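Propose amino acids for all 160 sites.
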């Protein structure tokens, strides 16, 4: 999978001021381009507030209130929310795990949500095992994820 974006410009829509005047759009990202090829690591770096999270939200169609110009393509074709959801997963900045689940239970829960109902349970469970191995989580697969300050669990790195 090749994911490319060209000349992205992102604007925050104007709000009315308390005095009823319409304010100007805020230009958040200016002329951003990039390429992410399958099998390669891409690092998006920048200072706090530079727009890294905004860029990722735009690339995954998770910012409906922002106005976007530019092109986003998957394998040379115009990207859309359904296509990007089918070929990727997005790890949020904050943990979205259920701390009382084991790693295996969490992955199984996510697989139930992401994989269609037409896929037999045996195949879904096999896919969970493959993901555990690919991510190097087999050793902690039966360990609780944990809740900071309440339930001891896996490490921060294992969570990511």
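Proposal:
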């Amino acid at each position: 999978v090749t994911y490319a974006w060209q000349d992205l410009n992102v604007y925050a829509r104007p709000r009315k001021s308390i005095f009823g005047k319409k304010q100007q759009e805020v230009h958040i990202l200016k002329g951003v381009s990039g390429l992410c090829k399958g099998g390669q690591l891409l690092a998006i770096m920048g200072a706090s507030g530079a727009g890294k999270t905004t860029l990722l939200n735009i690339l995954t169609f998770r910012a409906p209130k922002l106005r976007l110009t530019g092109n986003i393509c998957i394998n040379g074709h115009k990207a859309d929310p359904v296509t990007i959801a089918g070929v990727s997963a997005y790890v949020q900045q904050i943990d979205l795990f259920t701390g009382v689940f084991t790693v295996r239970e969490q992955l199984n829960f996510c697989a139930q949500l992401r994989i269609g109902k037409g896929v037999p349970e045996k195949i879904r469970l096999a896919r969970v095992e493959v993901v555990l191995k690919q991510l190097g989580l087999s050793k902690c697969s039966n360990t609780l994820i944990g809740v900071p300050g309440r339930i001891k669990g896996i490490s921060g790195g294992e969570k990511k």
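The chain has five helices and four strands. The first strand starts at residue 2 and ends at 12.
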